[in-house]
Amino acid sequence: MLRQLEYLVALAREQHFGRAADACFVSQPSLSAGVRKLERELGLPLIRRGARYEGLTPEGEHVLVWAHRMLAEHTALRQELAALQGELTGTLRIGAIPTALTVASLLTRPFCARHPAAKVSLESLSSRDITRRLSGWEIDVALTYVDDDTLKGVQLLPLYEEQYVLLTPADGPLAATAEVSWARAATLPLCLLNPRMRNRRLLDKNFAAEGATATPAVESDTVAGLYAHLSTGPWSSVVSHAWLHTFGVPEGKHVVRLTGPAHGPRVGLAVTDQHPQPPMVRALLAVARDAGIRESLTDLLRRHLHS
């Protein structure tokens, strides 16, 4: 049955019989036959069929959740048996909010060094998708805001608190300034993430706390897009200190400390609350506890502020 469950998972993910078959390295007739066999064994229609794939039935959606869980448990068992032989193998699936992707290497690099036979799959996901896919057993670990009330039935390991600084032109009006208020920052030509991103909504609350409203000249839906504009234009931006780990300070920009709210939300790891934990998850949590991410980022921020 496991193979048929893999077909169902692939079909739900790809939304197309041909692409699902390619993902499973089988022919389309073989995949279709496998799904029909699963339906016969369960005595339920799982697929809404028409000229094309039209989605899962309500029963199919319910079976899909169990399919993810059963496949995850099977994978964990194989990892556990490999670990008993002295080597961790398999793929660790990490989902990360876009604003935390910049620190992922602080975890994946020591993890891969400690477990060279293991692989990592890192995917950028929204907070909403992380909640859904973590509860649906589609990812093993989430790197996300741990204060998110939508996270249920999980274990949390906080890693650091976001601290915000202003990146502004080194030849601009704040060139000789060490600290600036959020209200003053709001008056500058800004480049920020767009309001769909939680980071932007958090920044807007900080601006509002000082009676100000930010009206950016440029908005981006990625940190990379934001930095691309900072590197080539006259804009300023409020950024998390964690972004400095990957992107640093663009040439021609000056780092200014923001007064007022000193810290943003906590970022950390969220894993499904299950016992025993899969070996991959246990291994990453062990690495994360030793990584000293909070201290590394704080030191990095201090160096940039004093440079």
In CATH, the homologous superfamily of the largest domain goes by the name Periplasmic binding protein-like II
Strand content: 15-25%
Number of strands: 13
Fraction of residues in H or I helices: 40-55%
Amino-to-carboxy terminus distance: 60 Å
Please describe what this structure looks like.
By secondary structure, this protein is an alpha/beta fold. The chain is elongated, with a radius of gyration of 23 Å. The protein contains 12 helices and 13 strands. Helix 1 crosses helix 3 and helix 2 crosses helix 3. The longest helix is centred in the N-terminal third of the chain and has 27 residues. The model has no long low-confidence stretch (mean pLDDT 89). It folds into 3 domains: 64 residues, Winged helix-like DNA-binding domain superfamily/Winged helix DNA-binding domain (Arc Repressor Mutant, subunit A); 117 residues, 3-Layer(aba) Sandwich (D-Maltodextrin-Binding Protein, domain 2), CATH 3.40.190.10; 95 residues, D-Maltodextrin-Binding Protein, domain 2, CATH 3.40.190.290.
